[in-house]
Amino acid sequence: MKFWGNLLALISVFFMMPAFGASLVATINGTPITDTDITARTKLMARQGQTSTDNRRVALQNIIDDNLKLAYAANFNAVPDEKIVDEEFKKMNLGDVSASEKEMAKNALRAEIAWQIIVARTVLPTVEVTKDDINTERINLAREQGLPVEMTIVRLTDIPEDVAKKLTKPKSCDDAIAIAESLGGIPQKFTAMQYELSADIRARVAALPILTWSKREDNSVLLVCSTKNTDEYKNLDEIIKQNTTYKQAMFLADQQLKQLRRKAVIVINDDRYKL
Known about the structure:
Distance between the termini: 44 Å
Shape: elongated
Order of helices and strands: HEEHHHHHEHHEHEHE
Structural class: alpha+beta
Radius of gyration: 29 Å
Number of strands: 6
Strand content: 5-15%
Number of helices: 10
Strand order of the largest sheet: 2-1-6
């Protein structure tokens, strides 16, 4: 009986080993991750333009996260069916890929779709966006890309620091020009869409109050005379609100994923992949 017991134990161990002799790199809650899995994931990442000297470790982390997302989503019946995954896989246009790469790509898609469902069901409803959040995001957007806002601006270049300190708050754009000229300046007045401005000027005027001189930078000061919202601006606040809500939701979802990692039983068997 002891012989048969030992034989059964050996058979059990054999069937638990990764197929085709692939080395076992890690396990996530008992699920094996092999060197073959990581190779398939790095090839997928390369096809998507993701390359770095640390790709194999990144690939392992991605596989671990996929497992965590799918296990968590299963609790909410949020794992997409195969038809949806197949449709999204076709859109990836990966070309001729191996069976292992295809399965890895589909599993990554399955996990990402499941996670988006989780975010929509459990995270988004908890997010509350305030007016301050929208204003902050609007200013960030104005600095980075510019808004559909027409701006009339006065610019003074080659202005000494002592002269810049003498600039007083004007009552109008014409008054600002008169003040600048009285101090020996040669003001330039121009009108442009905010998104057409150069990055440095856009960043300086993004949060600048109307008829207020900016701080002196690069020997110049700026003043926004007036702004005019274009038709494109009408739905901007709603778009910003949606984007801000989504960004906050994804931040909370990332925190949730970090908690799942902390609770998971992750065993790294290969020192090269220590996270």
